[in-house]
Structures are given as structure tokens and as C-alpha cells.
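Intended use. Records such as the GPI transamidase subunit PIG-U entry shown here are meant for training and evaluating sequence-to-structure methods. They are not intended to support clinical decisions.
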Amino acid sequence: QTLPIVSQKLTYHLGIVQEGLFLYNHNVDPYDGGVFHQPPLLLPLFSLLPDVREWPVFTAILYILVDLLSASALSSIADSGEAGQTKHYTSPRRAKTTSGVFIAAAFLFNPLTIATCLGRTTSVFTTCAILHAIAKALSGSPLSAMVALAFASYLSMYPILLLPPLVILAYDRQAARRAIASAPAFTATCLGTVAAILTILFGMSFALTGNSWAFFARTYGIQLTLSDLTPNVGLWWYFFIEIFDPFRAFFLGVFWLHLGAYVGGLSIRLRKQPLAALSVLLGIFAIFKPYPSIADTTLFLGMLPLYRHLFPLMRYSFVASATVLYSSFLGPAFYHLWIYAGSGNANFFYAITLVWSLGQSLLVSDLAFAVLRDELDIERPDLIGKEIKQM
């Protein structure tokens, strides 16, 4: 549970949630302990469960059910056929599809998914909300999709960046009898729904914490300012340990700008394939968000089999897969050498996290290349089978 590969400061394992829950049950501000930084509304949920030390089975059942709900949503996404055929684009390779049951099983039996479930990290709730937001958008329920996205954003903040491609996806998949023809009106409706749900959630959090807005600084503020530099599998923590304080604010802005810069470009370039834009963005967030864990990678890897028809176009799948596997095994070993054995230093662990990020970067860039090459084969049939350069 305590490995930073499995859980980190913003996706807590159950032990840290239990500390916040103990303070909450004793009418003490759960953030006074200095280690709990999750949104307040998670506390009433966990307070309904029996004591995990005496009855761990109920907590295990909760996490298993959440994973099953995520797999169900992923199966619905696969069965929609959106990965191969959209409203504005039809892939010439769409016949090579994978059943939703297989994709759900691949997600559930992924060792990283199992590790996340065993680690009892709260990120499984964010994963479930994101997948249901996409599934609802594909089923023609845009308002339900926005509600799910609002819940995901409340839990982890970064999912709000998925709003532009999700709105495009929901607009394309509207049910004919309830369709809103005007794109600006539809966008305004979606934005209003997300804002309304977030307002309600924040209001409930305000009431739960004794009419105090202090939870904002303790939950979302820590992500924006990176005030906790606990080691994790991301790229931020080591850099900001080494950076001089006068330059900290500047580079925080640069890192956040870099993370958000992909959203607009991908949403515009992949306008015909909004699900592909969402999948690529999930991979980018798993690499570049301030406090990532393997749960973020699990979500991206769960979306990847949707594009089985594009696998022949991917160029570095073996190298990327081998790199991810290599770093998955060595990550815990290097962390142990640094923290417990005392025979290494921070460079050991950060070096292997760089390899981990490299493997994910290869997968994300390869998927983006395959999606664009698939489009090119329709626009320029004379280039089918020919080598091209990626600019």
C-alpha cells in the first residue's frame, strides 16, 4: 500500500484515509493531521463501513465493486464501436474489433489494476467516474456524463481538463429525440451542469467541514502549489526538490501550462475522433500530472485495447511494453534500496521513474501516430503502405 508506485499523496491508501476518518469521527478537523488531503465527502462514505481492522472484507468488497463498475463502463465503451467509427469518421480497419467482455477482462486482470485494488487507493473512484462519464456520453446521456465528470473532478481535479473532448463526444452522440442542434447551446448546457454539480459538492463539503473553506487549500491547493514533495512515479517532485525557491513559481506555471496545453490542440486536431483525444489525454495525464500513480496508467492501458484495429500501425509497441514492464519490476526494488536498505539515494528511484515515464510516452505517442496514420490512409490512399515521417 505504501509504495509510491501504487499510491501517493493525492491517491491515498486506506491507512491514511483511516487517519482522516479517525479525526472526523472524533469531531476534529481531518486535515489537522497533515497527511489527509482528500475531498471531505469521502469521509462519510468510509465511515459507513465497519472497522477495516476487524472487518476488512467489507472494504475489500467495496473496492471490488468499484472495479467491476469501471469494467462495466469500459465494456459499454468498447461495444459502442466509437473507436472505429464515429459520426464524422470511419476507419478502414474498423472490422478488427475486440469484444467489450474481453476488454473488461483485460482491465480487471491487469496486474496494475489488481495492485491498485489491493493497495486500496482512492484513485479507483476517480477512474470509475471518468469511465462512466465517457460511457454515458456514448450512450446519448450528455447530462449524466457531465455529472460523472464533475464527480471525477471533485475527487482529483485534473479530470476537468477532459471537458472539451467529452463535450464534443457527447454532442456527436446525442439521442435524436433529445438533441440540441446548436453547438454553443449544447456546450453552455454541459458547462452549466458541471458547474452546478461542483457547486453542490463544494457546498456539501463546506457544511461537512464546519462551514469552512479551508479544505480547498488542503486538497486542491496542494496539487496547484506542489507543497508536498513526497516521492512518487511522476516527474515533478525531484525537479522541485532541486529547483531554487526564487524560480519555483515560474516553473510551477510552466509545468501546469504544459499539462493543459495538450487539451485544446488534441480536441481540435482529433475533432473527428473525440474518443481518441480522450484516450491520448488520459495517457498524457498519467505521465505529466503532479501526483501520478499506477492507477492513472491502468486507466490509459484499459482504453488502449479499444484501438486493436490500429495495433499494426504502431511502431514501438514492443519497446514501450518492455520498458513499462522493466520499470514496473525495478521501481519497487530501487525504492527499497533507497528508503529501507540505505544502499541507494533519490537518484536510484527517480531514474527508474524516468524509464517508467519513457515507456508510457512511447505508448501515448505511438497511439497518436496510429490514429493520425489511419486518417491519412483515407485522405491519401496513394500513401498506404509507404513509410512516412512524423513532423
